[in-house]
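Researcher: Good morning. I'm working through a list of sequences from a screen, and I'd like to move beyond sequence-only analysis. For each chain I'm collecting a predicted structure so we can compare shapes side by side. This is the next one on the list. No need for commentary yet; just the structure.
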Amino acid sequence: MSGPFSYLLWNLIHESIHGNFSNDRSQSQFWGRVLSILFGTQFVVLKASHLMHHKFNREAGDRIEFFEADSGRPRWMQSLNYYFRITFATYLFEVGIGFVLFLPSAWSKRISQKTVRYPIEDAFFKWVLKPEILSEARKDLLFTFLLYSVSFWLYGTHFWILLILLLLRAFFVSFFDNAYHYAKEIDNKNSAYNLRLPDRLSRWFLHFNYHRIHHRFPGVPWNRLPKQMETVGEFWDKGFWRQAWSQWKGLI
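Model: Good morning. Structure tokens for this chain:
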């Protein structure tokens, strides 16, 4: 599953993260793990990073489009990092962090201590480095490695096709991830856009475009978001494609 199908897969995982995939939380947990392995990473990694996004939304470390004058890094370097983040790096981080967690715990902790710059990153690593979380992540990484090793083996000399499909997945997931927040106000946990889409496409995205509503009411399952938006008197901010394209403007 690549491209738009990968985005649907991520949205299903997202429902599992919030316990909305099923009325049975154990089923949400189980299917979240299965779908995350298909996605190429581990459920605990996606869950930790997404819940930290909710907790630290639009705070330092979660507003990648803003130029940080006091960071010591030149604008061109921050700009390069920004464009890498919105094209491939978000997904690549979600995949790569599993390999860090598979290392001996002392090594993983040392790497986290050297790379953490913001509270959101510190909170993320504190979560995933808990012994019970590490155990689950390592088990799921083995299944992920086995699945993709077999997949590349089956593709044989045409392995490059699978590689391109995975790069398409990385692009779709990374590009849309920040679109709902680009250039929105900072230091506000509910800061996000509600982005208009045709109803059929919105359903395909599991109404992920009702994004501010989701931030305000994360426990509401995807199929009730339109009704929730109507109930609380929310509104559309702009069109989905226009907002997504605006990310190419770069740093603010």
